[in-house]
Amino acid sequence: EQSEEVGEEYLFKIVIIGDSAVGKSNLLSRFARNEFDSNSKATIGVEFQTQVLEIDGKEVKAQIWDTAGQERFRAVTSAYYRGAVGALIVYDISRRSTFDSVKRWLDELTTHCDSTLARMLVGNKCDLENIREVSIEEGKSLAEEEGLFFMETSALDSTNVQTAFEIVIREIYTNIS
Ligand code: GDP
Ligand code: MG
């Protein structure tokens, strides 16, 4: 079992993956700090953020990992994935190439993680409806094919960000309890 149980506390490692600039870092900052950054600078420094939730009266710590921009070079290392029990696979609904990459990211998870991993496909930037390149139906059907949860989000206007993370965290909790 890769999740750690400390008394009545739980610690879950969750990774965020997907192509560069799909909004991974902003999803995390929106979830963890309710912040959004419109400057597209590569994430430097922060490895993960911890959020504490209560489920069934138990304290659950979600340790959510963000890449430091290494996905640009297709060089996310196995250390990044090690011990993960949940994953958000993110694409940008306004850039089809990022959706086309999802299968490759799923292969990465298969290579590096346990098959019991809780996985959520996230179509981010749903505020950009006017320049949408990937329909909701396409996202849904890929998620169904691959057995993933699915949600469209906007880190900009906060749509579904909390919900997406919480579904993954609850699923991990359900899997182990
Ligand atoms: P990462 O490389 O996947 O970590 O992506 P970032 O979080 O750095 O975001 C890349 C760019 O997309 C930045 O300019 C963000 O401001 C922008 N961005 C992120 N999320 C959203 C969103 O939900 N809507 C819109 N319109 N822009 C976003
Ligand atoms: Mg980033």
Automatic annotation (TrEMBL):
Keywords carried by this UniProt record: GTP-binding, Lipoprotein, Membrane, Nucleotide-binding, Prenylation
GO molecular function, one term: GTPase activity
Main location: membrane
Membrane topology classification: Lipid-anchor
UniProt keyword annotation of Membrane present: yes
Signal peptide from the UniProt entry: none
Subcellular location: Endomembrane system
Gene Ontology cellular component list: endomembrane system
Family statement: Belongs to the small GTPase superfamily. Rab family.
Annotated protein name in UniProt: Ras-related protein like
Source organism of the structure: Quillaja saponaria
Whole-protein coverage range: 2 to 178 of 216
